[in-house]
Amino acid sequence: MENLKFIKRIVLATTFTVGSGLTIAGGMGIFVGHERFLYAILMIAGIIFLVIGWLVIPGIFRRLE
Predict the structure, then answer these.
(1) Does the keyword Membrane apply (predicted)?
(2) Nearest to 45 by CA among 61, 53, 11
(3) Rounded to the nearest 10 degrees, what angle do helices 57-64 and 2-32 cross at?
């Protein structure tokens, strides 16, 4: 049980970090205006990571407990 809480924290922190990083990188790339399509893909991937972190992962860990 203690290990599950630790793993949950690591997974959620990693998901939010990756999602935030991709969203910020995509937003800055679009702002600069270089290869906007590729940066838009980064931004969308970051938003998907954040949604997964908020909605999907907590449900998975609730089932494991």
Answers:
(1) yes
(2) 53
(3) 170
Which distant-in-sequence residues (6+ apart) come within 8 Å of 35 by Cβ? 29
d(CA 5, CA 11): 10
Residue linked to tokens 């990571």: 49
Question: What pTM was computed for the model?
Answer: 0.76
User: Does residue 61 contact residue 4 with C-beta atoms inside 8 Å?
Assistant: yes
pLDDT digits (tens, 9 = 90+) for 8-33: 889 889 999 999 999 998 888 888 87
Taking residue 49's Cβ as centre, other Cβ atoms within 10 Å add up to 20
DSSP-assigned letters across all residues of the chain = -HHHHHHHHHHHHHHHHHHHHHHHHHHHHHHHTSSHHHHHHHHHHHHHHHHIIIIIHHHHHHHH-
